[in-house]
Batch of 2 targets.
Target 1
Amino acid sequence: MDDEGKVIVKSIGKAMQFWRKLEGLDQKEFSDKIGTSRSYVAKLENGHVGVSLGRIAEIADALGVSPYTLMHGMPDNDELDILLDLYADRELEITKSEMETLFCQRFINGSVPAEYFEHILCIERGGSYRCANGKKKK
């Protein structure tokens, strides 16, 4: 595998780890869920082994996200901090589905500020919704 392939495999693995942790599963619990060993999950998450598209689909299903989300890999650190802050904000009550939408947005437009993610959240909620700034929008 060339260097670019290794970067992609590692990014997919980190995305798997992110969503696994968001689900509150440790590696052993997750490995049981997908019918493999904990050490294999660790190797996947660290990018030490490749993963087929079929296996990505199985893993995504077990995590309750789309394969598309896993294949996009991880956002950069600044974007990840923004996303985690939004998700942790109990007043916003961001659902997993909304988090997945926000998680994938960064690849469409590159690195974006918090306000962009807040705007996407508002659009995602449609109609009368609560935006990230805490104000009710119509």
Target 2
Amino acid sequence: MVSSRALRLSVNDALALFISQNLDVLIAKYGIEFSKGQQITAALFPNPVASIGTLSSFTQGRTSSNSGAVISQVQQLFELAGKRGYRIESAGYGSQSAEASFEDAVRQLGFTVKDTYYKIQLAQRRLVLAEENRDRFSRILDINTIRFKKGYIAEVDLIRIRLQMVDFQSQVIQSLQEGETARGDLRQLLRLSPKTTLELTTDLDFRRIDPDINKLRTAALDFRPDIKARRFTYSQRESDLKLAKAYRVPDVTIGGGYAVQGAQGPDNPQQWSLNLGLPLPVFNRNQGGIHQAEVAVLTAEADLNKTMNLVENEVEVAYRNLLQSRRLVEAYVGGVLEDARSTMTIVERAYERGGATILDLLDAARTSRMIQQNYIEALFNYQHNLFQLESAVGQEISS
């Protein structure tokens, strides 16, 4: 684990650290190595079988010491009908499916990393806003405390200001807690020590994206790793079916032996033997295995079609959500946000000159805070929907 220290991270740095250290990613990577072991096993030939034994005859006064025989034999199984080739082919598709599954784990968890990263930035933006409002009303409270003592304002107005400042202080604490929770989640995803201080360098800013939905649909069906994994699985099941059909052809066992007999054995004390074993496919022609393999092919095909339909819908929904959230952010950026800030400043100055009541000031403060906070939420939702669309497509979107 990374030692306890301050760690500066951009969002790309966080993703790189996540891929190298996250335990779920490492587990998915072990699946690739496991499938490679299956590939090695699939390519191996059956081991030969060596046997040795003795034969003794006790007729006509013979004993094991003068008429026994030592028999040795070696047998080798030869697979026919391309069984080994089909096994290798199936294991190869299995390995490719494992690699695609690893990519899919990175895709899904990578979305979580980026989303958590920006949750920290969201909490930080909320904190800054809450602290600005708290500090502003702290100054207003100090001024009006003096005015109250001099009899310029009523006590109820002072109480209202004090309650509003407490509300802003509550928002400060809430933002701090949300930030700490998100930092803890990110440290866990990156496998960092709880004592590590995170300094995030990628800001929560608006970057307008206008993607082509038709290209997104095509890219998702071509490149998304869970679809690739299911395509490889489907090909693997087809190879398994060919292997199951090949088992209708029996394998041949060829063996050779050598026998050495005792001193009083037959006239030929040394004998060689050659034998051929071939099962007769009278009853078992792997009917059950073929049926299971055929069902497995149909299941894999259905799973592939289900995943493709799911991906198409995910892309469509994520794309529409991105457009809606983009419109909302642009509405705020187009002037509403600045209007809310300037209105608060205008009302505050009017209140100081006696041209506005305390209720006008509180109403302006709440409106300004609500607009600015809603803008921050809209900005985060836009970024969240962008990441959701990238995850649905299976690749980054740059335009």
